[in-house]
Specification:
It contains ten helices and 15 strands. Strand 9, helix 6 and strand 10 form a beta-alpha-beta unit. The chain is elongated and about 70 Å long.
Length: about 375
């Protein structure tokens, strides 16, 4: 079956953030709202194909890991009927999605329920695309390294095999600016999700991360505030070039802070870095740093990914998270969002959360806790 869809792919439990961000950037870039999507599971959004919306998503959408154009769908559960159906769909398809392509690569994902192995599915999809285009007089070859296009096949939540073009040509969980990652770095798109879920408003909020590590949260917040392109080197103009976000990032480890500063410079992000810990980076110091930068926003927002469970013993975790809770309460009127995995956090932090939802960074399974003052 011929499909024509736009699909945003992200981590589990990120549909809401991905949808909210797409509305924000499309309204700014195109002066209209995108249509309401269909949610496939908790980490994918499906829209009707819209080339303009796809362009905006590909350039500016930070909470997704892939932007895909769905081209074909098959309910076949064996290799031979999958090949036959896909060849026929490609042969009779009159769209020009393959225009200018000389080479493709094929990747499959989420095919555990299919009655064949992953490599067999790759070969079948590859042969069907090449043979179908060949019947239309278009010659493409398979190229593993640096192909012109990446074809991706995966099972959707209705049991269909979807075949399409991965417009991002691979996952963009890493933007390219983080050459110095540090220990257990947070994935960039997860940092963007945290900001959306915490309702970060660059016009009103000062952001502070007191344990910035590689600087991922601070850098993503600063870039999102301006609507900067996701990919390094993309010449597209930011959506909000006039924005002046106030983002403060602290860490007690000087070497880590230097690395974070270097990452921000490569990313082109305006971040105020301050060496210190929960004792030195108090409310007065945070607002003083903002004033020195020439801006004093209305509100404060903590965005933080403190050490995860496997890096802390239970007793140490309780003391540390308790101190973190005391520090946050000392800020008085700051909202906060913390991404953690240790089960000791919720009780030790000592406050009732306004929102708790599962959120993971790669293999690390955690929860996002959002607190109101």
């Amino acid at each position: 079956m011929i499909e024509d869809g736009l699909r945003l792919v992200g981590s589990a439990q990120t549909n809401r953030a991905m949808e909210a961000e797409l509305v924000r950037i499309v309204k700014k870039a195109l002066a209209r709202r995108p249509e309401a999507p269909r949610r496939d599971g908790t980490g994918q959004l499906a829209y009707a194909w819209d080339a303009e919306v796809a362009r905006v998503a590909l350039t500016y959408h930070r909470t997704s890991t892939r932007v895909v154009r769905d081209l074909y769908a098959s309910s076949a559960r064996r290799l031979e009927p999958l090949y036959e159906e896909l060849v026929e769909d490609v042969r009779r398809d009159r769209r020009d999605w393959h225009h200018g392509l000389r080479s493709i690569s094929v990747e499959v994902r989420r095919v555990d329920e299919f009655a064949a192995g992953e490599r067999q599915v790759v070969g079948t999809v590859k042969n069907a695309i090449v043979d179908g285009l060949g019947q239309r007089g278009a010659r493409v070859r398979v190229e593993v390294d640096e192909p012109d296009a990446l074809v991706v096949a995966r099972m959707d939540d209705r049991g269909r095999m979807l075949v399409g073009l991965d417009l991002t040509k691979g996952t963009r969980t890493r933007r390219g600016w983080r050459s110095e990652a540090g220990e257990a770095p947070l994935r960039e798109h997860v940092a963007a999700v945290m900001a959306i879920e915490a309702r970060y408003d660059p016009r009103r909020d000062l952001v502070v991360d007191p344990m910035c590590g590689a600087g991922t949260i601070a850098i993503e917040a600063a870039l999102a505030a301006k609507g900067a392109p996701v990919a390094m080197g993309d010449p597209a103009a930011p959506l909000w070039p006039e924005a002046r976000p106030v983002v403060v990032a602290g860490d007690r480890d000087l070497d880590v802070l230097v690395a974070a500063r270097n990452n921000a410079k490569r990313a082109g992000a305006d971040v105020i870095f301050q060496r210190g810990d929960l004792v030195t980076l108090d409310r007065e110091r945070i607002w003083s740093l903002a004033a020195d930068a020439g801006a004093v926003p209305e509100r404060g927002l903590v965005l933080c990914n403190p050490p995860w469970g496997e890096r802390l013993e239970l007793a140490e975790a309780r003391l540390f998270y308790g101190a973190l809770g005391d520090w946050w309460r000392g800020l008085r009127d700051f909202r906060a969002a913390f991404l953690v995995a240790n089960p000791a956090f919720e009780e030790a932090f000592g406050a009732r959360w306004a929102m708790k939802k599962p959120l993971s960074s790669g293999p690390l399974r955690g929860y996002l806790f959002v607190y109101e003052p």
